[in-house]
């Protein structure tokens, strides 16, 4: 993955968590996180928004985006996203991490700068509408 694609993915995920925060859908468990990414991926063409990672590894546990999980780890290390209740789980498919994620105040300040860039305005609008609709189901 080149540097520009990596930055786009990190920016998209930051906007993803910002939209969830605005709609009071936080923290997001790892399981729900990947389901939300999957659903956003399915719905994104309706808004003519292209997701940075259009591939899904269909895992036995459900939708899973390995690149997104890796990028979330980067955002946690940069203190853009907060991870809580982290635990290692073993099931019939092996080991995996379980946890809850939420954007930090620092992450929110970054989204203000991202949203100033008109090229990402559609992403922000789509994600806010997406989480707004999800919040009605909650």
Task: Give your account of this protein's structure.
This protein is of the alpha+beta class and 138 residues long. It has one domain. Helices cover 54% and strands 21% of the residues. The chain is built from five helices and five strands; from the N terminus they run H-E-H-E-E-H-E-E-H-H. It has helices at residues 3-22, 30-43, 66-77, 105-115, 121-137; strands at 28-29, 57-59, 62-64, 81-91, 94-103. It has a three-stranded antiparallel β-sheet. A two-stranded antiparallel sheet has the order 2-3. The longest helix is centred in the first third of the chain and has 20 residues, at 3-22. The mean pLDDT is 86.
- Average pLDDT works out at 86
Q: pLDDT under 50 segments (min length 5)?
A: none
Listing every helix as H and every strand as E from the N terminus to the C terminus, the arrangement reads HEHEEHEEHH
Give the total of domains.
1
* Main sheet: strands, sense, barrel: 3 strands, antiparallel
DSSP helix fraction = 40-55%
How would you describe this structure in keywords?
54% helix; two-stranded antiparallel sheet; globular; three-stranded antiparallel sheet; alpha+beta; 21% strand; 138 residues
